Structure formats: structure tokens, C-alpha cells
Amino acid sequence: MELQETLLSRRSVRKFSSKEVEKNKVIRAIELADLSPSAHNSRPWRFDVIYNKDLKTKIAEVHDGKLDKKLIKGVNFPNKLRVKLIMLLAKRVIKNAPVIIVVWNTCPLLNLLKDYDKSNIKYQFIHDMEIESVSNAIYSIHLALHSMGIGSVWMGIPVLKESEIKDILKSKDQLVSILAVGYPLYKSREKKIRDKNLFVNIY
Ligand SMILES: Cc1cc2nc3c(=O)[nH]c(=O)nc-3n(C[C@H](O)[C@H](O)[C@H](O)COP(=O)(O)O)c2cc1C
Questions:
Q1: In the prediction, which pLDDT does 121 show?
Q2: Could you tell me the pTM of the whole model?
Q3: What's the CATH number where 42 sits?
Q4: What is the domain count for the chain?
């Protein structure tokens, strides 16, 4: 698929056929994503590719719709019911996806800051740069898979269950998202580009 065509036809896919997703294609998409731009060329991403059904189910099951009291302390979620529903949707999507890719930030830049204080502007700036960098890699995987006819959805909601997922996968890194991957059950409608005046200023 040509790049413009890939961008025009890409959609999030949450319903997958039972067709097996070839490992070499998933690995190729991840290898291509390793070329993504990153702050200081730090390439702060790491991926756990999970085909194993038991492990995948374990990760799906932590998405129980409950919000960790410690995590939401002092945070006023605009709509707790919506968050709960998105989490339960993630549970189903992860369970039914033939493969998931768990995306981590290895924090190479943050680790250079000794004893960092999270309220410090320097921490926030560096943290943002790492997340922006990892996001590039996530989008690269999503697009590369789509160009091979494979669907995926980028899910941020698993971050609310970070500690459980870290325990399951014995990870010390920061959870950024989970991509659920599979051949699409149906063809999604193409999205329309909005009137550019809504989001572009030309000087
Ligand atoms: C940072 C980020 C987090 C997202 N988190 C979720 C999620 O937790 N669950 C989900 O079903 N979709 C999630 N999505 C997918 C969006 O819902 C989707 O991209 C959006 O609705 C636009 O639809 P499209 O991708 O088909 O164009 C996320 C996308 C991004 C970029």
C-alpha cells in the first residue's frame, strides 16, 4: 500500500477474525517502528508480543472496570462510568485479539536524572519527550500492520492497571499502551478529513 492510501484507509480495529496473524509480519512492523524518530534518538520503546492465550487472558482479566483508589486519589475523572466501560471493552478486545503488543517506555532519559521530583518541570519535559517518542513507534506499528492488511487498536486504558500488568510480565518499565492486533472482521469506513480551517492556520 502506498503511504497516502495507508493513511487514508487506516482505522482502529477492535473486532478480529480468527485468522492467525503471521509472526514475521508482526515482527517486521515492530522492526520498522524501531526506525521512528525519538528524542535524542533514545529509542525508548520496548515491546512484549503476546500470542500465548493464557498470558493474554491473564492480562485481559485485570481490566475489571475498577478504578484503583490510590491511582485516582485527587484526580477527578470526568466520567467514571465511561472509563469503566472503556476498560471492560479493552478486556474483551484483548481476550479476542489473536495477538497483543504491550508497549513500554524504558525511560532512558529520565534515568539520567538522579532522584527526580515528578513535579519538576525538567521531569515533565523529559517524560513528555519519552512518551511522544514511544507514541511515534506505536503509530508506526499501527500503520505498518495496516499496510499489510492487519488491523489493530491502540489502547491507553491499560495504564490504569499498570501495576498488575507489570507484575504479570515482570517488567520494570513504564506501561504506555497495549495494541490489540488481528485481521479485521470487516472493512471499516474511511474517515473524512475535516475542513482544514478548523485545525490549520496558514501565515
Ligand atoms: C493515546 C490513545 C489512546 C487510546 N486508547 C484507547 C482505549 O483505551 N481503548 C480503545 O478502544 N481505543 C483507544 N484508542 C483509539 C481511539 O479511540 C481511536 O483512535 C479514535 O476513536 C479514532 O478512531 P480511528 O482510530 O478509527 O480513526 C486510543 C487512541 C490513542 C491515540
A1: 84
A2: 0.95
A3: 3.40.109.10
A4: 1
